[in-house]
C-alpha cells in the first residue's frame, strides 16, 4: 500500500480512513502525529507496529474540544481547568485520573489508571478529530527512535507503505513535542514529565507551584514517564553537541577533519559565518534564537542525515537549559546520546 499524501481539501478521505480503523498522520503545531481511533484497540495496536514503538509506552489522546475530557475523567482539578482555558488548544498535555480503566483500551494507557490528553492547535486536525466522531491517539509519526517529523514528507519517508495516509498541513510551527504535565500527584503539585514550548514559568505564573520531574535534569536514571527510557530522536549519523559557553566550534571541526571525517553543521547563521572547512550546513536560526532553532531542529537532523550528503558527524548548537532551551536541549541531548565535544 502506497501511503497517500492527502490535501486539506480531501479531509473526508482521512476521516473515512480513521472511521475504518486505518492510520492517518495529522499535522499539529508541535510535530506530525500518527492518528488512529483511540477507542479502537485494533487500530491502536497498528500504531505501535507501524512505528516500532515499545508497547509499554502510553499514548496521548487528542481531543477536538475541551469538554471531551469529561468522557474519560471526573477528576479535573481547578488548576487544570485554568490551564485548559489558558493553553488549549496548544502544546500542553495534561494527565488525569480515569473514571475507570474501561474508558480507554489498555493499549492507549499502557495499563495505567491515568491518561494523557491534549487539544492540538491546528484547525485541520481539530476538524479531522471532530468529523471522525471520536478521539485520536497521536504519537509522533516517525519510526520509533528517529527524529520526530515536522513535515508530511518526513512522515512519508518513515512510514510509506505502513499507514493509509498523511494529511498535509505544511510545516509545524513549534517543532518539538508538547509539554507533558502530570495533574495526578498526591500532594497536588503538578509535575512536568516532558519539557516543551510551554515553560515551567508560564505554568507557575498561572497555577503556582509546579515541579520538574527530576529525571529531566539528571539523565541516565530510571525515568517516570514510560516513554523516556528509550532511544529517541537520533539520526543514524552521530551527533556531537558544541558547548555554547566554550564556543569551540572551529576546534571541533579541525579535530574531525584531521581524522578524515566530513562534518555537518547544525547551527545559527551567526555561528556558521565564523567557521570554515565543513561539508554541509543546515540553518537552525538566524541569530541563535531558541524558538526558531526548536522549530527546525528535527528537520535539520533529518536533512544532514541523508546518506547522499556523506556526513560522518553532525555538530550541533546548544542553548542554556532554561525556559524553552530546556525543551530544545532535552531533545538534542538524546539525539546526541549526551555527547559534547
Ligand atoms: P509521544 O506519544 O511519543 O509524544 O509521547 C507521549 C509521552 O507522554 C510519553 O513520554 C509517555 O510516556 C507520556 N505519557 C502518556 N500517558 C501517560 C501517563 N498516563 N502517565 C505518564 N506519562 C504518560
Ligand atoms: Mg515520539
List keywords for this structure.
single chain; about 350 residues; alpha/beta; DHBP synthase; Rossmann fold; 12 helices; globular; binds adenosine monophosphate
The hetero compounds bound to this protein are:
adenosine monophosphate, magnesium ion
- Per the CATH scheme, the topology name of the largest domain is DHBP synthase
Order of helices and strands: EHEEHEHEHEHEHEEEHEHEHEHEHEH
Instruction: Name the shape in a single word.
Output: globular
The CATH H-level superfamily of the largest domain is DHBP synthase
Low-confidence stretches are: none
Instruction: Profile the largest sheet.
Output: 11 strands, mixed
β-sheet strand percentage: 15-25%
Structural category: alpha/beta
The CATH top-level class label of the largest domain: Alpha Beta
Based on the coordinates given, report the CATH architecture of the largest domain: Alpha-Beta Complex
Overall radius of gyration: 20 Å
Strand order of the largest sheet: 1-8-2-3-7-4-6-5-9-10-11
Question: What do the pLDDT scores average to?
Answer: 95
Termini separation: 43 Å
How many distinct helices? 12
Total beta-strand segments:
15
